[in-house]
Amino acid sequence: MEESDKKILKGTTTIGLVCKDGIVMAADMRATAGNLIVNKETDKVHSITDNIVITMAGTVSDAQLLTKHIRAELSLMRIRNQHEATVKEAANLLAGFVYGNIRKMSMIPGVAHFIMGGKDRTGFYLYDIFADGSLTEEKKYVTSGSGSVFAIGVLETMFKDGLSINEGVDLAVKALNAALQRDTYTGNGINVITITKNGVKREIQKFINTGIKS
Questions:
Q1: DSSP 3-state of 114
Q2: Is 67 a catalytic residue?
Q3: In this structure, are residues 147 and 182 in contact, taking their beta carbons and an 8 Å threshold?
Q4: Is residue 212 domain-resident?
Q5: Residue of 12, 86, 143, 186 with catalytic role
């Protein structure tokens, strides 16, 4: 078997949007291993503090472990410093974890890609934490995963500065739907979470073709 044949293909679509009054985070709900759908109800959007949310893509075990790690570290930072970490501090910390993860001494290094959105005392922020540990602040939108090539076309065409949160939610759903229609590894449902001055709120959790309603 060729080395390329040994790779297990994975995919998803996750999205982050900057709106005038907050951040919108969204993802599909399908987990795959090659051509096998292993889970139809995977939650890929997670709160790591009361005001910071991440989406995950990549190797499931690595993404889950790093999510637990960053949540625990931010909790410890709050206890030690007596205040919440800023979004930038949280993003830099997670980027360091991802950098170390991809370079760990392993025959099969894990890959994890995160989008982080949140608010602190200085405003709302969106960061792309790429699988190599690089960190980029996004001023408009960002998407990751195998379906991102389809979602990005919708975002490029329909995004405009000054979107309201409701408009941002609608746009995220449209972008996810484009990926759902065309990407084999994206599917089964959508999760949309918003971050506003009122905190984190799950706006949509919709299951598709599973017989489950929420």
A1: strand
A2: no
A3: yes
A4: no
A5: 12
Tokens at 86, concatenated: 């800023």
Q: pLDDT grade, residue 38 (50/70/90)?
A: confident
Query: What values do phi and psi take at 158, rounded to 5?
Result: -105, -15
Q: What is the pLDDT of residues 6-19, one digit of tens each?
A: 333 457 999 999 99
Q: How confident is the model at residue 209 (pLDDT cuts 50, 70, 90)?
A: low
Domain membership of residue 207 (yes or no) is no
Q: Is the pTM of this model over 0.85?
A: yes
3-state secondary structure of 78: helix
189 within 8 A of 202, measured Cβ to Cβ: no
The number of residues in the chain equals 214
CATH of the domain at 99: 3.60.20.10
Q: Does some domain include residue 144? A: yes
147 CB-contact burial (10 Å; exposed 0-12 / middle 13-18 / buried 19+): buried
At 118-129, the pLDDT tens digits run 999 999 999 999
**Residue 125 contacts residue 118 (beta carbons within 8 Å):** yes
